[in-house]
Design brief:
Number of helices: 22
Number of strands: 14
Largest sheet: 3 strands, mixed
Mean pLDDT: 81
CATH architecture of the largest domain: Orthogonal Bundle
Strand content: 5-15%
Shape: elongated
Low-confidence stretches: 1-19, 22-32, 47-55, 263-286
CATH topology of the largest domain: Penicillin binding protein transpeptidase fold
CATH class of the largest domain: Mainly Alpha
Radius of gyration: 40 Å
Number of domains: 4
Amino acid sequence: MAVSRSIGRWYPAPSPPGPPPGAFEVALLEFAAVTSSPPPPAGQPPAQAGAASRKRIQPLPAMIFAVFGVLAGGMVLAAVLLYSSYASSLPDVTVLEAYAPDEGSDVISADGLELATFAETNRRVVDYEQIPTVIVDATVAAEDHTYWENPCVDPRAIVRAMLQNVSAGEVVSGASTICQQLVRSVLLPPDLMADPGRQLERKIKEAMLALELDAAYPGLEGKEQIMEFFLNEMYYGNNGYGIWAAVDRYFGKDFLLVVGTPTDPGASPGPSVAPTPTPVPTPAPSPGASPVPEPPDPNAVTPAEAALLAGLLRAPSELDPTQYAIPATDDAGQPIANLLEVPADAQPVLIRNDVLNDMVELEYLDELDHNAILDEPVYVIVPAVPRILAPHFVYATRREVAELLGSEDIIDRGGLTIETTLQYEGYQVSAEKWAQVVYDLDRLTDEELAARYGANAMNWINQLQGRNIGNDAIVSLNYRTGAVVAYVGSANFYGEVTPIHQPQYDVVGQAFRQSGSAFKPITYATGFETGAITPATMFMDVETEIVPGYEVHDADNRERGPVRARDALKYSLNIPVTKAQQLIGTEQVVDQAERLGLEWDPNQDPHVAS
């Protein structure tokens, strides 16, 4: 470094202007300015400044200040470097624009019934406007009191949590906002979340991403979008992913069916009430009669239910209320079907009460309503076992969709709506009823069979007796369109497994059966299409050895002599169709069948077409 001499002291020589100093450089310059002595007045020898110099050497407060300045500058520099290091590895928060959590696919019948849902996780994504306001309020009360005002991080909550944790000697309080929890669940990589040694790094990155989230989704509309992401993403225990599944799982309600005014996305946050139901005209009450209040919508979520769900977010698996519940009973002590009661001293209920208190504090809930809720019992429903309608058809549909899309994964996670041609209420119900006759033959008495299927059906049912029939199947088609309107793959999908009856095996879609005479139209159609034969082509209906050791016979063992192709098909004769296949070519017949969608038994001789 170049220097210059000035009255007995060395000073840096002027240097060309460069980039502005960083935080650490600024701290060093301030330290030098405080600890250095100014030059003596011009013409005064250095020795004459001794006394003043001794006084300047001992400014202890100034030196302490300088040291702290250097330390602070170093900390600022370290923070800048740390921020730069972390920022380079952070994901882009705008990926949430393409937010698409795993969602099951629904199979729907032609008459609008949901036949089944295929899902790895029980979830249905809903829009913010569809979510009941009381759920949003309870979530804010439980997780983030300043949600509508804070910039996705809450410094006051952080300080408060630090003081509480230090005072308790353990972690008893957290300070993560709703935004930070969303970041943790969606944006941070699993390896970072799973490593306890990187907890500080996780917290820093979590806060950084939360601030970026606030910038990417500004204002009230942005906070509503973040809330939508959060409520669709979070786990509520008992295989309930997202708020719709949680309400359905614990209370058996579908809030999408509630008739009412949707949440206004332009409404200001703060104290709120549930959507107002659409008024239904009712006759005017008679004079003197008390007005009859309208019954609440059975699918509407109550404040008590919303508070219970919001409380589960702290530890969803541990707080699952069904683990604490006992069978519910009525006033007479009789059990109530499919209902469980959660004791008032159970942990989920105690946390729910805390959430209700916070809702009152935030003016989301009236004090009188709050007190009334605390006096009510807490109920949840018995976990339902999903029952698939038209199960053989549903699984056949799954196989076909997977083949069309090239993957089963998209069915379980892609949120598809698969509309089918099945007519459940009419054709399918009838087909299942009559297919079960075979299942019931050896299980019911004649009287029980007559009671179930009617006396008029007993004539043909009796004809099935003693024939060793262990299973059956039914497929009904619309002959004009080819649409499948009923599909029963076995006598009873949910029936008992026996050596001769495997109920869940699909005889229609999974079994390879001899096609028999049903294949004859395909053989003749191939000949007509290729020009190898015409409907008038003559064949000799005479028993012939087709291959050494194998002769073909007609079903009635008769020989008719010369027969045209049209008549051979009309009367389903075996000998002419075999000769037609030889003339047309087996490979051509096989290719035609495959174009029509037929599949072959992999163990079958590839040269045999029928």
